[in-house]
Beta-xylanase (Micromonospora antibiotica), 301 residues
Amino acid sequence: GTTLGAAAAETGRYFGAAVAVNRLSDSVYVGILNREFTSVTAENEMKWDATEPSPNQFTYASGDKLVSHAEANGMRVRGHTLAWHQQQPRWTAVLSGTALRNAMLNHVTQVATHYRGKIHAWNVVNEAFADGGSGARRDSNLQRTGDDWIEAAFRAARAADPGAKLCYNDYYTDGQNPKSNGVYAMVRDFRARGVPIDCVGFQSHFTAQSPVPSDYQANLQRFVDLGVEVQITELDIEGSGSSQADSYSRVVSACLAVSRCTGITVSGIRDTDSWRSSATPLLFDGNGAKKAAYTSTLDAL
Ligand code: XIL
């Protein structure tokens, strides 16, 4: 293949990008998107604060624009995200207990119903595990509604859109460590009890302090061995030149070595589009030119 999307398709995978909908009017941006990518994820437009700014009042215009763009260009859509402790609307701050649980479940149901049939995979729950060595759940307003909030969210999502793959998504879970062990135990438990979960997303935000782990492939494989698919969902790698290019190549090779690692999404298009642009972590420079990391990624696919 001569593009990321075409090369990934040769092994039945997709290659996606996180998209900021307001950039779809930038011709350089949209030119790269349409040429190279076969999947899109809304960078912010499908989050709770964006879609339900007031209780039970839903705004889908921006997310719908992205879905229309994807449909017009033959791209898949990864939904991001239904339940997360960040980027919640302000009105949730005063809720707790049953009221917050019910607000969360209503949100999951309404949004997944609105997008029913249009979403390839949903990040149903994002970032629910704590950093560090505990392997425990992260403390959050949602967690304080009870330990079963995650499975309740997955069941609501399945009921609303039975055709979407339902994923758990997190960061610092890319290698085997206490945090990924905690996620692993949850997924194993969900599979054993029939809680509907189909996939696990690995955000894969890499920096000099947190590089691509040597056991990345083994970690992806142990999740696949639980019966779920895995995807790399927000890939970006701080750096430049050949060291960045080598890291991208290692990530792609790890995914391709795992049969049910079904797709890779980078967290933006140009370095200047990145949520951490000073890290220059993406595949295209600010002018939209292909970086060394682009070439190594394409070669590894
Ligand atoms: C980031 C967006 O890229 C920014 O535009 C926004 O200001 C904050 O959120 N993990 C996630 C993503 O799951 O949704 C986050 O995206 C980055 C961390």
